[in-house]
Amino acid sequence: MFYFKLAKTNLKKNSRIYTPFLLSIIFLVVMNVVMQVLLENKGMDTLQGADSAKVMFGLGSRVIIIFTLIFSIYTNSFLLKQRKKEFGLYNILGMGKSELTRVLFWESLLSYVITLVGGLVVGTIFSRLCFLVLGRMIQAAEVFKFEFSVKSYLTIVLLFAGVFLVLFLLNVVHIRRVNPIDLLKGGQKGEKEPKTKWISAILGIGFIVAGYIISVTIESPLKAINLFFIAVILVIVGTYSLFMSSSIMILKFLKNKKGYYYQPNHFISVSSMIYRMKQNAAGLASISILCTMVLVTLSTTGSLYLGMDNLLRNRNPYDFSATVTENSDEMRVKFESVMKKHNVKIKELKDYTTEANIMAIKKGEHYELLEKGNFNMSDFSKAEYFEVMTQAEYEKNATEKINLAPSKVALYSMSDPYEESTIKFGDLQYDVQNKIKHVDFLPKMEGIMNMHVLVMANKEDVAQLVKDFKIPAEEAVAETTVFMNIEGSDENRLAAAKELKSTIRETEQSQPISSMDIDRKDSQMFIGGFLFLGLIFGITFTLATGIIIYYKQISEGYQDQERFSIMQRVGMSHKEVKNTIHGQILMVFFFPIALAAIHLVFAFPMIDKLLMLFGLSNTQLFLYVSLGTIGIFLLIYLFMYWQTSKVYYSLVERQA
Q: Do you know which InterPro entries this protein is assigned to (predicted)?
């Protein structure tokens, strides 16, 4: 019982450094409870897109588990550093390393029980709230409700038993490897002035610039998928190198500026930061990366959620449409009968027929055919898509006549405008007589590739193009797209759309069908869940940022007590001490958040392209959400700065 009582006393005595550690672990327990309860909830199986939702939340759960282990080890290292002197004192007073191991065991066990009980209680309450929020987001609150899951809670118990076992073993190994004198001085051990590592600094800046270049030069959303993780890794490696090497370069440059360095405030700030920069750099780089992750995650998920209408309209230009190769009149009759059955009014019902579909890559001045199923991802990312129709078919639905001359064409580009006056398909060249800016029956859509409608004078011209350009027979089949816009209650519209889709699938197995109402229901599940995960990750990474900052302030506060006490004895005023502390903290605090904001600015073009893969083409919305996210996070960051600075002041001013 002696070791148990000693461990209990130690937790109370070291409450200043133990409380943030325990609270952070409790928070991690809460996050894991939420994710596990969501995964095991029976209501998940009743939702549309249940398989996709389980995969998404499963990946989210793994990310949280990995983060839990890494962050627990990180915070434990701060805790151990502050307690080295205490363990060294116990060792010198006669307590051997075996006895210290027993104390550590009881401390770990007590911490485990406290965090597990606290985390499970708070996690259960918070999970209920999360189910209400998520149910509202995905419009499924009636079937998606909180349920107690023995399996989920058992998983959490075992997970954190493993986490604390790892922390206990790491602490034991560390204490057994260090002699008592080093333990006694470990908390106060200073650092030598680090050397400037020019090669590392240049590589760090080079990595970041390379990541930025990839982001700003990407043109295709498909290329963005392949290069996104490469750019992320480059920026992460570059950020750590930048803080480890370039920060030392900057501080030494300031030290050599005599007019700047030999002032009371600057002298102490610069000199103390140089000697601590090696240990500071990793923490500052971690803060910057975590801030970037928060900004990117919340900006992306927030944009998808707020831009859902834009996303749905891009994927569904009409309320309902179906492409058929058979009699389109029969399809129109089906549309009308199903809508009437469900008391849904048809506002608009039209159709148009395309004679051929071409996927081609522009090489030099002409296009080369890209056959379906015979291309790689690189080709696909550069491809353009042409729907070919006759002038008569175009004028059937359009409000204007184009009166094409023989062997001339009209062109409507949905994304990037076509600038040239001629267009060449292989050896065939056509004069572009009309560049159509708007088509009433074809809403302009931005997506993965540039899409065009190529209007030719007659079917003979189309046949000549098919023959000479060697378009495969399966791509030269006339297809009719029947589309409509409708009016009615959401419930009736959805029921009608589902029946109509089922009916069409019986006769047109492989043809595309688009429904605004079905897609909205599916998207609410996916994007609502995506935003929920974004919020969970954002909260988790924000907490991690705050904890790292807090421990950093405590660690440096204990180290700086004696330094500032000496400075006051040699004549430094209390006001000068406060100004010095303020300047030092300000410099350290705002460099990471400033770099995180710069990372987001340069990541903007790449993320914008990735959002197009979801169907979101509203760049302005993404810009506003990103700016709003930066503003809100900056306020939270300022609050963390204010709170943790008070801890640093209280430590330093006790002897100042």
A: ABC-4_Integral_Memb_Prot, ABC3_permease_C, ABC_permease_BceB-typ
Residues forming a β-bridge with 600: none
- Cα-trace Rg, the chain: 32
Buried b / exposed e along 469-499 (16+ C-beta atoms within 10 A): bebeeebbeebbbbbbbbebeeebbbbbbbe
C-beta of residue 231 within 8 angstroms of C-beta of residue 215? yes
Q: What is the pLDDT of residue 656?
A: 43
Q: Element (H or E) spanning 604, and its range?
A: helix 574-614
How, if at all, do strands 450-456 and 384-390 pair? parallel
Q: Which amino acid is at 114?
A: I
Predicted local distance difference test score (pLDDT) of residue 327:
67
Q: Crossing angle for the helix pair 15-40 and 97-137, nearest 10 degrees? A: 50
Alpha-carbon distance of 25 to 110, in angstroms, equals 13
**What is the identity of the amino acid at 604?**
F
Rounded Cα gap, residues 51 and 44, in angstroms: 9
Rounded Cα distance, 19 and 23, in Å: 6
What is the DSSP secondary structure assignment for residue 390, as one 8-state letter? E
* pLDDT < 50 stretches in the chain: 187-191, 656
Burial status of residue 130 (CB atoms within 10 A of its CB: 0-12, 13-18, 19 or more): buried
- What distance separates the 2 farthest-apart alpha carbons in the chain? 103
- Cα separation of 629 and 600, whole Å? 11
Q: Which residues contact 90 (CB under 8 A, 6 or more apart)?
A: 99, 100, 103
Q: Are 194 and 280 in contact (CB under 8 A)?
A: no
Q: Where are the domains of the chain?
A: 1-189, 193-319+513-656, 320-512
pLDDT at 625: 92
Put the strands of the sheet holding 320-324 in their side by side order. 345-354, 479-487, 320-324, 513-515
Locate 259 and state its tokens.
């007019």
DSSP 45: G
Do the beta carbons of residue 137 and residue 28 sit within 8 Å? no
Secondary structure (H, E, C), 77-140: HHHHHHHHHHHHHHHHCCCCHHHHHHHHHHHHHHHHHHHHHHHHHHHHHHHHHHHHHHHHHCCC
> Which residues, 6 or more positions from 388, have their beta carbon under 8 angstroms from its beta carbon?
354, 355, 356, 357, 358, 454, 456, 462, 465
Candidates 630, 595, 623, 628; CA nearest to 608 is: 623
Inter-residue contact 390 to 455 (CB < 8 Å): yes
**Residues 348, 407 contacting (CB under 8 angstroms):** no
Three-state SS for 199? helix
Q: φ, ψ for residue 69 (rounded to 5)? A: -65, -45
Q: What is the pTM of this model?
A: 0.73
Name residue 516's amino acid: M
